[in-house]
């Protein structure tokens, strides 16, 4: 009897969530949603940078003088959104794109909430459910509780894209598998620290691909 | 290579690509070019001797010297709605602007109306005879505007109205370009108030 490779420990009883992740479909959906939202909003900001500048000023995130911080944000942020959105759309540098999007989404959501609470403080009769303003995202005036809900969903999707271990339906799988220190299986695209000849323990334990000693 | 390190490197690559694209495109674009060092929201500090918001100070200081009908209206005009920013520019009400438009000197080009809104809003509709000058891209409009306002008795600047502060920034640009502050008037009600009064408008197609 051929002994299995010591580094290959077949996992036949993966959790349902992990099996679902391994199909690549949840990541594909998350990538497409994030890409659509970020590219759309990025293009809208790029088309009217001064409207974005005016909206950004209302958040009081930066000191107005010196103006570099605000102006640099207006120049760079739309492109960060477009580039990370495109990276997710084609499935290249998925983790890096998801990380940048998380770093943009979390502070922005906090800033939107802070501005909403500031409006409620100025008008004590204004309930949170009725607070609305143009958040400067490129989508016009929005009801803030809906915006917060959407942003929370986007944060969850970006976090999932960051931590998902599959690379199915991603372009980077084809580039990455040729790299010396690839973490992704040639066959299923799933990230695994235990690869033998570029094939993960799951694929190697499948009936059609016999394990090799 | 650990996943964290790989992720950070990927993020840096995407960030660097974004920076290159952002600065490259910003440098190349004419319309929508953002100047890194420009303070777009700077408003000159109000000096002690200068009038405060909404004060029709000039009208009060030199009432009968020129004696135009618009100045007479200005004296009795109600104080326009307060803006976000305090400024030192004289203000005009919608009735005063209307009076100014009827004034024969406006047809001769002695009074100029400046629309401080962006291209899209200007093309959709503006005050009759108004010329456009968006304060954030003043360089695009500088030659035309300075040519028109040079020697003008009154330069009325307006924007969207309401919370819009672009007209204040336009006044600042005009002063910086050498237009005497005494000839600059701010129509605080702006396009919103003009339209709500169903007063005549012009669009770009006309």
Key traits:
heterodimer, A: about 210 residues, mainly alpha, two-stranded antiparallel ribbon, 4 strands, B: about 210 residues, alpha/beta, Oxidized Rhodanese, domain 1, 2 domains, five-stranded parallel sheet, 9 helices, 5 strands, about 45% helix
Folded structure, characterized:
The complex is a heterodimer of chains A (213) and B (206). Helix content of chain A is 57%, strand content 5%. With 213 residues, chain A is mainly alpha-helical. Chain A folds into 2 domains: 16-176, no CATH class; 180-213, no CATH class. In chain A, helix 2 packs across helix 6 and helix 3 (49-58) packs across helix 4. With 206 residues, chain B is an alpha/beta fold. Helices cover 43% and strands 9% of the residues of chain B. In chain B, helix 6 (119-124) links the parallel strand 2 and strand 3. Chain B is elongated. The chains are: A mainly alpha (213), B alpha/beta (206). At the A-B interface, helix 3, helix 4 and helix 5 of A face helix 1 of B.
Outline of the structure:
The complex is a heterodimer of chains A (213) and B (206). By secondary structure, chain A is mostly helical.
Span between termini of chain A: 10 Å
Please tell me the total number of domains of chain A.
2
CATH architecture classification of the largest domain in chain B: 3-Layer(aba) Sandwich
Q: For the CA atoms, what is the radius of gyration of chain A?
A: 22 Å
| Percentage of residues assigned to helices of chain B | 40-55%
Number of strands of chain A: 4
Q: Give the helices and strands of chain B as they follow along the chain.
A: HHHEHHEHEHEHEH
């Amino acid at each position: 009897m051929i002994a299995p490779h010591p580094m290959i420990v077949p996992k036949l009883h993966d959790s349902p969530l992990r099996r679902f992740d391994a199909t690549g479909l949840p990541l594909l959906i998350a990538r497409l949603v994030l890409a659509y939202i970020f590219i759309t909003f990025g293009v809208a900001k790029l088309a009217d940078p001064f409207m974005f500048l005016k909206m950004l000023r209302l958040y009081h995130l930066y000191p107005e003088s010196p103006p570099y911080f605000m102006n640099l944000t207006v120049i760079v942020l739309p492109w960060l959104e477009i580039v990370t959105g495109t990276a997710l759309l084609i499935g290249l540098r998925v983790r890096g794109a998801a990380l940048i999007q998380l770093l943009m989404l979390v502070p922005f959501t906090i800033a939107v909430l802070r501005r909403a609470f500031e409006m409620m403080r100025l008008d004590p009769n204004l309930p949170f459910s009725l607070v609305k303003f143009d958040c400067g995202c490129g989508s016009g005036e929005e009801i803030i509780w809906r915006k917060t809900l959407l942003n929370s969903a986007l944060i969850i999707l970006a976090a999932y894209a960051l931590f998902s271990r599959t690379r199915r339906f991603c372009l980077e799988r084809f580039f990455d598998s040729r790299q010396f220190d690839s973490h992704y299986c040639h066959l299923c695209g799933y990230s695994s620290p235990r690869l033998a000849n570029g094939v993960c323990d799951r694929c190697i334990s499948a009936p059609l691909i016999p394990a090799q000693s | 290579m650990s996943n964290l390190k790989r992720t950070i490197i990927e993020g840096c690559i995407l960030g660097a690509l974004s920076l290159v694209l952002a600065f490259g495109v910003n440098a190349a674009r004419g319309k929508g070019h953002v100047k890194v060092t420009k303070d777009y929201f700077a408003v000159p500090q109000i000096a002690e001797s200068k009038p405060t918001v909404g004060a029709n100070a000039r009208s009060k200081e030199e009432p009968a010297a020129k004696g135009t009908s618009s100045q007479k209206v200005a004296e009795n005009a109600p104080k326009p709605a307060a803006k976000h920013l305090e400024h030192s520019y004289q203000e005009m009400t919608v009735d005063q602007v209307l009076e100014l438009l009827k004034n024969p000197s406006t047809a001769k080009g002695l009074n100029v109306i400046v629309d401080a809104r962006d291209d899209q809003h200007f093309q959709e509709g503006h005050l009759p005879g108004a010329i456009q000058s968006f304060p954030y891209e003043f360089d695009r409009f500088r030659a035309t505007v300075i040519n028109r306002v040079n020697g003008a008795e009154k330069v009325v600047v307006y924007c969207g109205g309401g919370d819009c502060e672009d007209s204040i920034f336009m006044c600042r640009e005009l002063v910086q370009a050498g237009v005497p502050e005494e000839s600059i008037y701010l129509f605080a009600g702006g396009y919103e108030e003009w339209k709500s009064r169903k007063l005549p408008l012009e669009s770009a197609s006309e």
